[in-house]
Amino acid sequence: MKTTSISVTQAARNFADCINRVHYQNATFVLLKNGAPFARLSPSHQKKCRGRDLAAILLGTHLSSAEATAWRHDLKAARKKLKRQADKWR
């Protein structure tokens, strides 16, 4: 799948073409506003992993106590490295 970055203005001027490429070629567009990523235009059938999906998968997983301890340790380390996104609406 091809990902292309274009400005919001370019996307507006060529909207029908963008939509057709997304539909027929499974293309993805990252829309830029003032040079920064703002939105994504992608096929709706793309798979995404959401928190609730991961929780459902993990519920059916049986880990040994050593594996569960290692998982918890890795999860804590990953959470420390992630930065919470600022809420633009506040």
List the helices and strands and how they pair.
Elements: E1 3-7, H1 8-13, H2 15-25, E2 28-33, E3 36-41, H3 51-59, H4 65-81
Parallel strand pairs: 1-2
Antiparallel strand pairs: 2-3
Could you list some keywords that capture this structure?
48% helix; 19% strand; three-stranded mixed sheet; alpha+beta; 90 residues; elongated
Helix and strand content put the structural class at alpha+beta
Strand content: 15-25%
What is the number of strand segments? 3
Biggest pleated-sheet summary: 3 strands, mixed
State the separation between the terminal residues, measured CA to CA. 35 Å
In spatial order, strands of the major sheet run 1-2-3
- Average residue-wise pLDDT: 87
Tally of helical runs: 4
The amount of helix comes to: 40-55%
Dominant shape: elongated
Which radius of gyration do the C-alpha atoms yield?
19 Å
List segments where confidence is low: pLDDT < 50 over at least 5 consecutive residues. Answer: none
The succession of helices and strands, N to C, reads: EHHEEHH
